[in-house]
Amino acid sequence: MGVLKRFEQRLEGLVNGTFAKVFKSEVQPVEIAGALQRECDNNATIWNRDRTVVPNDFIVELSTPDYERLSPYSGQLGDELSGMVRDYAKQQRYTFMGSIKVHLEKADDLDTGLYRVRSRTLASSTSQEQPGQAPAGRGPSAPRGGQTGGGHVGPPPMPSSPPSGAPPRTAPPGAGPQPHAQMRRWIEINGTRHQISRGSLVLGRSTDADVRIDDPGVSRRHCEIRVGPPPMVQDLGSTNGIVVDGQHTTRASLRDGSRIVVGSTTIVYRQAEG
Q1: Which of the listed residues 120, 146, 170 is the one where a domain comes to its end?
Q2: pLDDT per position in the chain (274 positions), as tens?
Q3: Is 167 among the domain residues?
Q4: Which among 1, 21, 142, 187 is least surrounded, fewest beta carbons within 10 Å?
Q5: 112: CATH
């Protein structure tokens, strides 16, 4: 069972209690949870072959109406979201420089139903090491970047430096660009498996595409899958766009089991070690 599904089920157990009003807001907690996963993926930094560090301090900016609905439950919701991030990091083999925290803030420039996520890596010498968390370093780093939900264009990631005394962010010579050297990646279309053996894979109706999809709703060069890290799918200016895990988008990170819909065709992204 996926991390997001488990998170959703935990909240469902509380829907008739403390969290009843939360589910009446325009922004749903599971949407925020998905955005936090993408924030980890988009800001993952490879320090060496066995260590990929992700942010541990997250700020979720909400419109005034959504903030007013959610803020009374911010403590318990923040704990649930932090637990979801920890579970996801363990699954992806990410590590942290300190304890995980999720904060809610009000943003006057956002309309109801829209949200924005910012993150940063904060090192803590006092926090206890938890599953998926790296030993604490010395001193915090600068904010890492952010993303928005609901169609807003987010600000570009801000440059930052690793904590003083921490290892460099780049992998050592010969380590390669991926955290798992033996990771296998492929896609499944109508029961047929297509291996991803290069850095990218173009899908479309054209005979020039790496994987040809015979579907009138698919453009000649519809989208491209890039191995990352993190693995991503990018729309290539198609007519009908792409839907990733139920969300219309032009670019999204992928995880094992992600479903990409182009035209009337569903593509399942797969990855496994070995």
Answers
A1: 120
A2: 577 677 767 766 554 445 555 555 567 777 788 888 888 888 888 887 778 889 999 999 988 988 888 888 888 888 888 988 999 888 888 998 889 999 999 988 888 878 888 888 887 644 333 444 443 333 333 344 455 554 333 443 444 444 444 444 444 444 444 444 578 889 999 888 888 888 889 999 988 888 999 888 999 999 999 987 889 999 998 988 999 988 899 999 999 999 999 998 999 999 988 6
A3: no
A4: 1
A5: 3.30.2320.60
Assign residue 267 the CATH number of its domain: 2.60.200.20
* Domain span holding position 102: 3-120
Q: Quick check: pTM over 0.90?
A: no
Confirm whether 47 is domain-assigned: yes
Domain count, the chain: 2
Q: Are residues 11 and 88 in the same domain?
A: yes
Three-state DSSP string of the chain: CCHHHHHHHHHHCCCCCCCCCHHHCCCCHHHHHHHHHHHHHHCCEEEECCEEECCCEEEEEECHHHHHHHHHHHHHHHHHHHHHHHHHHHHHCEECCCCCEEEEEECCCCCCCCEEEEEECCCCCCCCCCCCCCCCCECCCCEEEEEEECCCCCCCCCCCCCCECCCCCCCCCCCCCCCCCCEEEEEEECCEEEECCCCEEEEECCCCCCEECCCCCCCCCCEEEECCCCCEEEECCCCCCEEECCEEECEEECCCCCEEEECCEEEEEEEEEC
Same domain, 15 and 113: yes
Residue 251 lies in a domain: yes
Q: Are residues 198 and 95 in the same domain?
A: no
